[in-house]
Design goal:
This protein is an alpha+beta fold and 57 residues long. The protein has 1 helix and 2 strands.
Length: 57
């Protein structure tokens, strides 16, 4: 999943699309897989972020 596909939802949240007077906006988020965790060569990674693995539905 790319940032370009998540960007519209993020912009709605950051723009304050929700208020006390209006219900939150719902957006469709397409299914897919992603990498969770840090790459083995990431010097800033916390040990709890290893191993990196693909998360799939």
């Amino acid at each position: 999943m790319t940032l370009a596909r998540l960007l519209p939802a993020l912009l709605l949240l950051l723009a304050g699309a929700c208020s006390e007077d209006a219900p939150p906006a719902f957006v469709a988020v397409p299914g897919g897989s992603f990498l969770m965790g840090s790459a083995a060569d990431d010097p800033a990674a916390d040990p709890s972020e290893f191993p990196q693995r693909r998360i799939a539905p």
